[in-house]
Design goal:
Layout (H helix, E strand, L loop, with lengths): L2 H13 L5 H11 L8 E6 L5 H9 L4 E7 L3 H13 L5 E3 L2 H5 L6 E4 L3 H13 L3 E4 L7 H13 L4 E3 L7 H11 L6 E9 L20 H5 L31 H12 L7 E7 L12 E6 L6 E6 L24 E7 L2 E5 L4 E6 L4 E6 L4 H11 L9 H19 L2 E3 L1 H8 L3 H16 L9 E3 L3 E4 L4 E2 L3 H5 L16
Length: 489
């Protein structure tokens, strides 16, 4: 123990009688200085789905040890804990993340909980002296994303966003190549999330919650209303109370890449969205067909969501294998430039074409996003992160503002939508392709109108809308007592 550590430990000990256990643990965690050869102790929170990758990702890193697991589903928790026990790797288990955060022997928290938990858990972890790896979207609404940024800065925490494309050399080199002007000025960045999303079913009465799930903790900041869908897990994505639709699920990755390409470091000054939930009636309320238009001054960012297959014939069989694409990409980004285009069809690859459509360059190389986080934890430099929390906040909030426009919109017949879009060629072209795609799926927009979202204007400095009080209210949510994201972190 060096002199600095000794003095910190002494001050904690002196304060011990006056501090509650959790406060003492927070003070101890903040005083820990991680040496270059010290083992970094990680806790994983939420691993019924994406969190399993967190476990495997951190387990394989040298100098890192997973010391705790937390999940509100006891079956999920016990199953994963048994794997650790069978490997001879002791690990503490928790169902309540608040108890986990009281442990002074945890350096970092990595979380893949449902979206509505991301911000609160991240802020609490920062306050408890833990560094954080938080999955995308980092927030359930735009306001709370900024609160994580404030907490990270105030408590000098390293907070990484789970947008792993930022760490991949193939994509980093492609973006630098675009920025160098090799295809001239960017005229449009288009994000794509063409991913199969079938009906989640429709219930006529609340679904019972299994005894092995702590539903109160699962809800956390969200209201503890009866479960009105067949499955608790995963399908929370398709209800706005806990999820953000595919725009904020898969789409956040491509939204982030598109904003990265455009070099935009603020929210857009204007946004609107068009879409709906078509072709089936179920318990979901997020759009399965949608596009969002962010009117950045230099070039627009358009984002498209399509959950339906190429045509109606695939509704009964072959849905997942017959999704549409745009210029060869289904889940990706297409960058239009004066001298050609760059198609980004994956997290780690890109292809450049000239104006004649001839391929002129190709990139592909992946890397370890978890390793980048751990390197920054050791250096204590947020600048070493490839996806610092502020990047995650901005890209997540672009999804949220698009959804706000949609939620405040009205259903209009297609000719009325065309009239509103007249004069904006990219927006009109995007709508026409969407309408054609829906028609192929048996959807008549004249009979089943799409929602034309409210055209919202924003002050990027304050991150508040300038033309809609209702939209500003929706930048935040009502929090359940005891699970409030703090206004002052």
């Amino acid at each position: 123990m060096n002199r600095r550590q000794f003095l910190a430990a002494s001050s904690i000990a002196a304060a011990g009688l006056a501090l509650p256990g959790s406060a003492l643990a927070r003070q101890a965690a903040r005083s820990r200085v991680i040496g270059p050869n010290d083992t970094i102790r990680v806790a994983i929170v939420g691993f019924n789905s994406r969190g399993k990758d967190h476990i495997e990702g951190f387990r394989k890193l040298a100098g890192v040890k997973i010391v705790a697991l937390c999940d509100v589903d006891k079956k999920v928790l016990e199953t994963e804990a048994k794997k650790f026990a069978d490997r001879g790797e002791p690990v503490a288990t928790f169902t309540d993340v608040r108890k986990l955060l009281e442990q002074a022997d945890i350096d970092c928290v990595s979380t893949a909980t449902p979206n509505h938990w991301h911000a609160l858990l991240s802020v609490w972890a920062c306050q408890a002296g833990k560094d954080v790896y938080v999955e995308k979207p980092v927030s359930h609404n735009a306001w709370e994303g900024r609160q994580i940024v404030e907490a990270a800065r105030k408590y000098n925490r390293i907070v990484q966003t789970g947008t792993q494309s930022r760490s991949n050399p193939g994509l980093r080199e492609a973006v630098e190549w675009i920025h160098a002007g090799n295809l001239g000025k960017i005229t449009l960045a288009r994000g794509l999330c063409y991913k199969p999303r079938q009906s989640i079913g429709k219930v006529s009465a609340p679904t019972a919650i299994p005894d092995h799930i702590d539903y109160d903790l699962w809800c956390g900041p969200a209201p503890t209303t009866p479960l009105m869908r067949q499955k608790l897990h995963y399908d929370w994505h398709w209800q706005f109370v806990t999820g953000n639709g595919d725009l904020g699920n898969q789409g956040i990755h491509q939204m982030d890449i598109a904003r990265w390409v455009l070099r935009e470091k603020t929210l857009s000054p204007a946004v609107f969205s068009i879409g709906g939930r078509f072709a089936y009636s179920d318990d979901g309320d997020t759009p399965n067909s949608q596009f969002v238009y962010h009117a950045y001054k230099a070039a627009p960012l358009i984002f498209e969501v399509r959950g339906l297959p190429r045509s109606k014939e695939f509704h009964k069989e072959g849905w997942a294998k017959n999704m549409p694409d745009y210029r060869g990409a289904q889940v990706g980004v297409v960058v239009d430039c004066e001298g050609g285009q760059v198609v980004i069809p994956s997290y780690d690859s890109a292809i450049a074409y000239d104006k004649a459509g001839k391929e002129i360059r190709r990139w592909k190389q992946g890397a370890d996003h978890y390793a980048n986080f751990i390197a920054a934890v050791r250096s204590r430099k947020a600048a070493d992160l490839n996806a610092d929390i502020e990047e995650g906040h901005l890209s997540s909030a672009l999804c949220h503002t698009g959804n706000i426009s949609y939620l405040l919109g009205d259903k209009l017949r297609p000719e009325a939508i065309r009239e509103r879009l007249k004069g904006d060629a990219p927006a009109l072209e995007t709508f026409e392709r969407l309408a054609s795609h829906l028609a192929e799926n048996g959807v008549d927009l004249a009979a089943t109108p799409a929602v034309l979202g409210t055209h919202l204007k924003m002050d990027p400095k304050t991150e508040k809308f300038t033309n809609s009080r209702e939209a500003n209210i929706r930048l935040k949510r009502e929090y359940r007592k005891g699970f409030e994201v703090p206004a002052k972190v």
